[in-house]
Amino acid sequence: MSSPLHPLTTSTDPIDPTFVFDFRAYDEPDSADQRWSTWWDVEALCRGPEPRPDWVVTDRAAVDTELGILKTGKEADVFLLERAVDGGPSVVMAAKRYRSTDHRNFHRNAAYTEGRRGRDTREARAAAKGTTFGRAVAAGQWAGAEWQSLKRCWALGLPVPYPVQIDGTELLMEWVSVDGETAPRLAQSRPSPAVLASYFDQLREAMATMTQHGIVHGDLSAYNLLAAGDRLVIIDLPQVVDLVGNPQGMDFLLRDCANVCAWFRSKGLDPRLADEQALFSDLLATAF
Ligand SMILES: Nc1ncnc2c1ncn2[C@@H]1O[C@H](COP(=O)(O)OP(=O)(O)OP(=O)(O)O)[C@@H](O)[C@H]1O
Ligand SMILES: [Mg+2]
Questions:
Q1: DSSP structure class, residue 27
Q2: Model confidence at 119, in pLDDT bands (50, 70, 90)?
Q3: Helix (H, G, I), strand (E, B), or coil: what is residue 177?
Q4: What DSSP designation does 273 have?
Q5: 223-256 per-residue burial string, b: 16 or more CB within 10 A, e: under 16
Q6: Mean pLDDT over residues 127-138, rounded?
C-alpha cells in the first residue's frame, strides 16, 4: 500500500507524524513594531515560574507589539510590549532590554558579584552544565542576573513584578500599573501620611524576608520602588547581593536602609521609625 502524500509535498515521502505546519514561516506580522510571540522560542528554564498567573499569554499565535519606551537608563531601556492573540487574550508587559551582551564594563560588576557563585546550587549546576542560562550567569550578564533575582524573590512571595521570560538580553515582566497607567516611582509619588506609613511597613516586611534569605537589593531607593496604589513594588534587581557570601553584604544592606529611611523621613515619617540604624538592627535580629 502506498503512503498518503502530505498536501505540501509532491514527492512520495511518507507523512512525518511530528510535522506541524509552521504558519509563522509564511505569514509575518504586518508591522515593523510587531513580531511573533517569543514565548515558544526560549527554553523552559527561561520561562516564568509556576504557578503562572493566568494573565500570561502562552498561545503560539500571539503577536508582540511595541507600544513605546517607558524609560531609558544607563545600562537598559524599558519598553511597553503587548502580547496578544487576534480576538483572544492579551496582556501588556514591561520589556527591559539590556544594551549589550558584553557587560564587562558594567560599573556594578565586581563588588556586587563577589560571593554569588556557589551559594545558589541550581545556579552553580546550571553554570557547570553550560546551559544558556548557566553561561549567562557565569559571564556576569545582567539580564540573566536580574531574571534569577526576580524568580527567587517572586518564589519567596515578595512584591516584585512577575518574571515572564528571558530571551538573551531582553527580560519580560509584569507591568506594574495603576488605573491603566505605569505606576509612578515612589520618589515621584505624594502619598498621604497613612499610605506613607503603610508603604514603610510593606518595605520593612519585604526587606526582612529578603534579609532572612540572605538577599540584599543593593540599589534600593525611592527610584527603584513603584507606588502601585496601596501597594509598594520593588524593581531593578540585577545587582542583588549575597548578604553572607559578599564581604560587603552588610555595607550594602546598611546603605539600602539609609537610602530608603532618608526618603521616608523627608516625606514626614516619624524619624524614630525611619531610622537606618534601627531598621538595620531589626532586619539582622530577625534574620539570625
Ligand atoms: N515592571 C515594571 N512596571 C512598570 N514600570 C517599570 C517596570 N520596570 C521598570 N519600570 C520603569 O522603568 C524604569 C527603569 O527601570 P529599572 O530601574 O529597572 O532600570 P534601570 O536601567 O536600572 O534604570 P535606572 O538607571 O533609571 O535605575 C523604572 O524606574 C520604572 O519607571
Ligand atoms: Mg532603576
A1: -
A2: very low
A3: strand
A4: T
A5: ebbbbbeeebbbbbbbbbbbbeebebbeebbbbb
A6: 50
Between 153 and 13, the more confident residue is 153
> Considering the chain, what is the average pLDDT of its residues?
86
Which of 67, 71, 149 to mutate for ligand 1's pocket (most ligand atoms within 8 Å of CB)?
A: 71
Q: d(Cα 202, Cα 193) in Å, to the nearest integer? A: 14
Closest protein CA for atom 27 of ligand 1: 73
CA end-to-end span of the chain: 75
- Judged by its nearest atom, the ligand closest to the C-alpha of residue 73 is 1
Render pLDDT for 135-156 as a digit per residue (tens, 0 to 9). Answer: 554 444 889 999 999 999 999 9
Q: Are 234 and 159 in contact (CB under 8 A)?
A: yes
**Band of pLDDT at residue 110, cut at 50, 70 and 90:** low
Q: Which residues, 6+ apart, have CB-to-CB distance to 227 below 8 Å?
A: 178, 183, 184, 185, 186, 188, 189, 191, 199
Cα of 210 vs centre of ligand 2, distance in Å, is 18
C-alpha cell recorded at residue 119: 551559594
What is the CB neighbour count within 10 angstroms for residue 73? Answer: 13
Which residue ranges have their beta carbon within 6 Å of ligand 1? 70-71, 73-76, 78, 94, 96, 161, 173-176, 182-183, 185, 223-224, 226, 235-236
